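protien #1 (seq + structre)
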Amino acid sequence: MPFGKEASNNAELTGAEPTETAQLVNRIEEELDLLARNVDILEKLSKSPPIGIIRLSEALHLPIHKTRYSLHLLEREGVIQPSADGAVVTDKAQEFWANLNRSLDRMNQVIEHLKARAADRENRATPGRKGY
């Protein structure tokens, strides 16, 4: 299940509006879902000859509009380019993978730090306060 779906589904099931905190987290989860989709597409393009948008979306079980958007983002980054037969990976893809790996390492450090802080706060009893 993609990251953002579970949180939004919980709000839908209870009929409650998502809180501002949940909305903030959902936006981050949606961006991670987009990144994961872009990585899936780039990986598929790296392993196959040029492939068109329809075959690519079918192979990855994605809607065409999401596939098109991801292709646009990857092309804008310069890691793919269009050809008569479909999208192809450029030499810049290797740099993309290295940068992605470094960025994910940094994100993981931040996530672990935030998890520790959230667990600490969750375990502490906080007196009810009004206002800010």
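ok now protien #2
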Amino acid sequence: MFADQQSKRRVALDLSPLLDVVFLLLIFFLVTTTFMPDAGMELELPESTTATESEMAPAIVSVTEDGAISLDGESVTLEELQRAVAALPEAERQKVTVRADARVGYGVIVGIIDALRNAGVTGLSLPMDAVQAAGQRSPR
């Protein structure tokens, strides 16, 4: 007689407290996470009076003052850069951003652009700091 009553009883596990904790942890990490797209290298970008705002490409090549090259934060040589970019999916190869220090030699930049073109990159973005032209007033 007791066996029949116990077999009909179902055990219910309440998942509400568990879900509350999971969502609180998710919110905590979203709020406290710092997103730093330019982390890793301190660069002094060139200045331009005609600079316009544009989106950063999925693949970012950075070049320091001493000519050190990195692709998405990982140090690479010019040959490795070409191989790594060629291995990227086609969508990421459509546009690459080249962030170079203002003091980098012209030949280094030309070599990087040449390697990117050989790897199949069709669009390049060269970010720079916008400055006011002499004699122009800054917008208020």
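Helices lie at 2-8, 16-32, 78-86, 90-93, 106-118.
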